[in-house]
Here is the input.
Amino acid sequence: MDQTRLNQELLAAHDRQDTEALVRLYTLAGDRAEMRDDIDAACFYLTHAFVFALESAAVETDELNRRLADYGRAKRLSF
Here is the structure.
């Protein structure tokens, strides 16, 4: 999926209020930014994924928190 398609999928997931898709898609966007070594962008996307994961009590919540904490962008929480 290219960036344009990813952005379209994100917008559609927001329109549907599909938190599961939002966690997945924002994590994917964060992974891609991380692979480009764009850590600020990665953390931006991962923060969004984390917020939606918290909102929906997703299983990814702990891992997203760990990743953000590793970059100094969040405190490590216990779940």
